[in-house]
Every structure is written in structure tokens, then in C-alpha cells.
Specification:
By secondary structure, this protein is an alpha/beta fold. It folds into two domains: 5-208 and 322-398, 3-Layer(aba) Sandwich (Aminopeptidase), CATH 3.40.630.10; 210-320, 2-Layer Sandwich (Alpha-Beta Plaits). The chain is 36% helix and 23% strand. It is built from 13 helices and 15 strands. The strands form three sheets. Strands 1, 2, 3, 4, 5, 6, 13, 14 and 15 form a nine-stranded mixed β-sheet that branches. It has a four-stranded antiparallel β-sheet with strand order 9-11-7-12, with helices on one face. The chain has a two-stranded antiparallel sheet with strand order 8-10. A hairpin with a 5-residue loop joins β1 (55-57) and β2. α1 packs across α13 and α3 (94-109) crosses α13. The longest helix is centred in the C-terminal third of the chain and has 22 residues, at 287-308. It is elongated, with a radius of gyration of 22 Å. The chain binds glyoxylic acid and manganese (II) ion (2 copies). Residues 127, 134, 346-347 line the site of glyoxylic acid.
Length: 400
Amino acid sequence: MSDDLPGRFRASWNEIALLGRDADSGGYLRYALTEPELQLRAWFRAQAERRGLPVTEDGNGNLFAHWGDPEGTDAVLTGSHFDSVPHGGAYDGPLGIVSAFLAVDELRAAGATEVRPLVVAAFVEEEGARFGVPCLGSRLLTGVLPADRAAGLRDAAGVSFADALGGQPAGARPELLGRFAAFVELHVEQGRALVDADAPVGVASAIWPHGRWRFDVVGEGNHAGTTRMADRRDPMLTYAFGVLAANKEARLRGAHATVGRVAVEPNATNAIPSKVTGWLDARAADPETLTGLVDAVRAKLAERARRDGTEVGFTEESVTPLVAFDDDLAGRLAGLLDAPVLPTGAGHDAGVLAAHLPTAMLFVRNPTGVSHSPAEAASDDDCAAGIRALARVLEELTCR
Ligand code: GLV
Ligand code: MN
Ligand code: MN
């Protein structure tokens, strides 16, 4: 069955390539539980049905396709997510799901008979692009996020997660989680480490601790033409200073800080804003550096607010601790695949699940090194190499 795997990958990929694609940017608008993502979920069910894999849901929006007894224990879980950031790339998420189904085909064609059940998952709202909290589905499943908190999260149009889901989320499912012996997520690489290593596939060692903080700066809305400069209480100034401070503090620490989202009220060219809200995404190699970075940004914002006559509220929206993937598993897989081992600054459902079960990640080379952008890329040959690697790993974990 390994014949023309790149071609079979392409055929499968083309089935979803237009779903949620914005013709102007070439990027994807696949927000959780909106029409394009629902179509991708329907595609997931069709793929599972085509292979005779029954599909179950966990009451949190996560989907599971089962090769083997859906109630079976010691199962090996693989998969990823369908949702995207605004105008995101094609591969971040869907590659892990498409590859999982094709890895099942590889295993079956090779005559593998599973000893442990194999489960393909599609996790909901991994990016947090709609409801603000990343890895929402895996946080709910594991109980890291309480169901009532998730239920009340709202999207930009005011729709709650519970309404989008069609009911209250089930929350923690320890009995379901307890059936999984391991999780392996295949993902496009979101940097250039594999390009530099000249390797099509890598194994993850760790995910940097990271989080999201919202800062609301309130000032006084007023007329742009008549308000003397000295009389202004302009929240845009405090916000702008905060963005520059975040950049400087991150550089000083070898960390990452990004303000990629902003909301301005009333958002008029000829009005001093009454309120500016920014979202800080901060990441660092260790938790102390991350805390130091965020504390420094918060302190600088507060100091600047005093000078601007504004007020700042600083709210933690989500924090993911340092994830060190299971050393033994990563080492075993790196040996099996003869692949480099690398850390990443990107968040994943695998990072949430790693606190609950042995977890590993495989990365597929991205020639542009760009992600969360339409420029994200992977060649069909490298995707096929990723599928073969995943099949080997799943065989190792399920078939003996
Ligand atoms: C998800 O891709 C993240 O790292 O924010
Ligand atoms: Mn992403
Ligand atoms: Mn992803």
C-alpha cells in the first residue's frame, strides 16, 4: 500500500482543501463549530465510516474514530484539530487527522492486526480563535478547564460555547481518558528546525510554557480635533507603550511576546478612544522567565497608565505550563525513526494530554518555516514520510 503514498495523501488532502479557504488571502477561516469546521467534522465521520471505524463524541466537542472496541482499554490515541487561526495555514491541525486515517490504511495494508485499540481524534477549538481559550477540547476532557467556565465563554458575536456545542459541555471524562495508554500527535513544524536539520520528520522533546493575558486600558473618549494634547486620557498611548515593553522585555530574556490582537472603542479615526484592549501572548523556555516577563509588562503598563491618566486591568486568560514529553517515549520514537528531537514554542492538545498519559509528537518539515499564516507549507513527499513515521509509531505502540 506504500505505493504512491504522496499521491494518496494529495487525493485525501484535496477533499478538504477548499473548506473554509479564503480566496483572497489563501488562508483558512475554520473556526470551531462554524460551518467549515462542521463540514470537516462531517468529512471525519465519512472517513471513519469508509474504514468501518465507529465514531463517538465525548460531550465536549471532541470526536473519536475507533479501530477496535470503542469501550476497550489500553488504547493508543492519535489525531489533532481542524480549527484554524484567522487566515491560518492549511496544515496546522488537519495534517495530523488526515495522516492518522492514512496511517491506519498503511497498517492494515501491511497486515497489522491491532493488539490495542487505535483511536483517531479530532479535538475542538485547539487554537482558541473563536472562544479565546486554546486547547479547549482537551482541557475539558482532562478537567483542566471546568465545564461551567467553558460553557460561558463567548465568541465575538456573543454566542456561548454551550450554544455552539448544542448543550452544556460534559467536562472531565476520567473514565474515557483512563482508556488511553498513549497519545501521538503528528503536526506540521512551525519553525525551521527540520529544514536546518535536513530531516523530513522530527520528534518533540518539550513545549515552552506559554499563556494569554488580556489588558484592558480605559481612558476618556473625546474629540480628536478639539481636545488639547495636555488634557487627553488616551488609552491608545498606554496600549502602544505596553506593546513596545512586551517586545523589549521578551528580547531581554530570550523569550517570545506578541500582541496580535487589539480591540479599540469606538474605533473611529477622529475620536480619542475610550478603551483599548490588547491580548498578550507570551512564551519562554522556563516558567520563571515567563512569569518575570509577564510581571515586567504588567508593571510597565501600570506605570505608563499613571502618566497617561488611564486605568489598566490585566487578566490571565489561559496558561499552559512547561510540557516535557515522555523522555522514554520520545527517545524510543527518535531511535525508531532515526529522527531529530526538538522543542517547540507552539501549543498543542498533546501538551495538555501529556500531563495525563504518555504523549509524543511528530513534526513534519515546513519548508517556509512559517505558520499561523497562509505561507505555511509541507511537500506531499514529506507528508508521506510523516504518515509512514506515524504508522511505524502506531504499529510499535498497538501491534505487539
Ligand atoms: C497554537 O498553535 C499556539 O501555539 O498558540
Ligand atoms: Mn496553531
Ligand atoms: Mn495546531
